[in-house]
From TrEMBL:
Species name: Tepidicella xavieri
Included stretch of the parent chain: 363 to 600 of 623
Domain ABC transporter, chain residue ranges per copy: 4-238
Places the protein is found: Cell membrane
Protein's name in the database: ATP-binding cassette subfamily B protein
Length: 238
């Protein structure tokens, strides 16, 4: 897995109104770093910069690129194509929209706007049952289910499976469990830790309690890093 570095990253959607004011952190290869902070702190913006969601020229883009540097495996992402970024980074968002079809179909075909070529689909279809069998226990019960009568937790499992199927070396969990009740949240968090074991992972979360196992936790407030450390260190700091 690659390492990821944010070096003094500044970014705003509008000129002269920065949302991120010089953010730096490193996710060592295969480790998890969590960004925690209140709503509006800039957490999602930070995650989206990693896959150049707000590239100049795209809808919703800012008038300028972020300044500073973001690198993946030492390579400045400005020099990486959007396609390579898409292949390298798997995202599990908070809200998952599923097709009203089988779970297998949902896992295979991804988001409604996802384009897959036939060869890729065929290869995935051939091993989808093996793939699900290798996921944590909660996933097995999904097979054979149909449609959208799934609980929030089950929907997130489908979203996670869909992301894992393309085997990206980098994962982003953007509030992936924050819409769930606390029992479900704990269950899915445990599963995420298992599936993310050797991936380079960025976790975005509201609460410190959901990111116990991160290599480092960064507390972001109003676009600035105000604290950083392990879960135990941050708890001790109050
Ligand atoms: P968080 O994920 O921590 O809740 P966000 O990154 O979503 O924070 O938002 C940070 C700030 O950027 C907020 O003030 C938000 O209103 C603003 N913002 C987010 N997306 C856009 C956008 N597409 N255009 C303009 N402002 C945005
Ligand atoms: P595939 O590579 O299998 O076609 P997808 O099309 O589902 O996978 O996703 C490809 C990429 O699209 C993701 O890795 C990510 O860069 C982007 N993406 C996925 N989900 C979202 C989302 N909720 N918001 C923005 N971009 C996303």
């Amino acid at each position: 897995a690659p390492d990821i570095r944010f070096e003094d990253v500044r970014f705003g959607y509008e000129r002269d109104r920065d949302i991120l004011h010089g953010v730096s952190f490193t996710i060592p290869a295969g480790k998890t770093v969590a960004v925690v902070g209140p709503s509006g702190a800039g957490k999602s913006t930070l995650a989206r910069l990693l896959y150049r969601f707000y590239d100049v020229g795209r809808p919703g883009a800012g008038p300028h690129e972020p300044t500073g540097r973001i690198t993946i495996a030492g390579q400045d992402i400005r020099h990486v194509t959007q396609d390579s970024l898409r292949r390298a980074i798997g995202i599990v968002p908070q809200d998952t929209v599923l097709f009203n079809d089988t779970i297998e179909y949902n896992i295979l075909y991804g988001r409604p706007d996802a384009g897959h070529d036939e060869a890729v689909r065929a290869a995935r279809a051939a091993h989808i049952h093996d793939f699900i069998a290798r996921l944590p226990k909660g996933y097995q019960t999904l097979v054979g289910e149909r449609g959208l009568k799934l609980s929030g937790g089950e929907k997130q499992r489908v979203a996670i499976a869909r992301t894992l199927l393309k085997d990206p070396p980098i994962l982003i969990f953007d509030e992936a469990t924050s819409a769930l009740d606390s029992a479900n949240e704990r269950a899915i968090q445990a599963e995420l830790r298992q599936v993310a074991r050797d991936k380079t992972t960025l976790v975005i979360a509201h609460r410190l309690s959901t990111v116990v196992d991160a290599h480092e936790i960064i507390v972001l407030e109003q676009g600035r890093v105000v604290e950083r450390g392990t879960h135990a260190e941050l708890l001790a700091a109050g």
